[in-house]
Amino acid sequence: MVNPAERKQALIKEIKALKKEKSALILAHLYERVDVQDVADVYGDSLGLSQQAAETDAHTIIFCGVHFMAETAKLLSPDKTVYLANPNAGCPMADMITPTDLAKFKAEHPGLPVLAYVNTSAEIKAMSDYCCTSANASDVARFAAKETSSNEILFLPDRNLARYVQTQVPEIKITYFDGFCPTHMRMEVGDVVKLKKEYPDAAILAHPECDDPIKEMADFIGSTTAIVKAAKASDKRVFIICTEDGVSQRLSQDCPDRLFITPTRASAICPNMKLTRLENIKRSLMGDNTPIEIPEEIFDKAKACIDSMMRVPRGEKQSLTPEHHPVTA
Ligand code: 13P
Ligand code: SF4
Predict the structure, then answer these.
(1) What is the pLDDT of residue 20?
(2) CA 164, CA 139: separation in Å to the nearest integer?
């Protein structure tokens, strides 16, 4: 009888063989299960994965993440076949703003440039001028304001990222839509306070999607890849990781001699990000999935919105490969 560990190894072997045969690239967000990240060619944050999707020569992209990420990959690589590994994985934050909401928001603030977080549908991007991720939001806000000679911009849908950007670019007025990430909002500031009392030397690293009181306690604020890199570069031993639990899991695996704790852990798990299993990847590689299609009438406008982000001077590449060296010092 084959035990579960042997079955999993066999599945991983099949995925690797299929990936080669189909010339496919597997991308995984850092909120995915660690076994999914481990079979990916690249794992990282939304910006790093978009950059990979734009640059790859692979014929097929298998995206282990949520729907807006696979749509973004398709917009950046229109000639490639893009699969969302589990087609049921959506983002509740992205769903918080509809085209009707955005039309109303724009009508209430006429003439202002619209900056959409990448966590939006292609339809919303088609109605927006600029796009950003959590890794480059302040840079894109500055770029958008300069390019349009405006000292005010509209930001959507995440109010928490918007308020963080406002602290980074005080010279621009950020008028924002009232959306949020339910996963980050379930994290309780009281739990962060308790952990800091228990581990006074711990570093607190937070994602900008966290509520303000958590960010105010943080030693470092950044995207998921930025958090991983900052933790690995730090000489601290204990880390309070204020973002979806996948990041702590990644870090615990890579740096087993350090302690990474997710506050309010049971609630800080994005159910959508955890929908993808190795079986979904195999099925997608076998073509047993529906490729992402973007309606023709919105394609060019949504693409122009994403391309605006690629025009903003890049910082360091925000993606990691499973082969990178874990920090063990
Ligand atoms: P990034 O750090 O990739 O920007 O992640 C935020 C997020 O919520 C993805 O769903
Ligand atoms: Fe959406 Fe939040 Fe889940 Fe990211 S973590 S996919 S923003 S619900």
Answers:
(1) 94
(2) 12
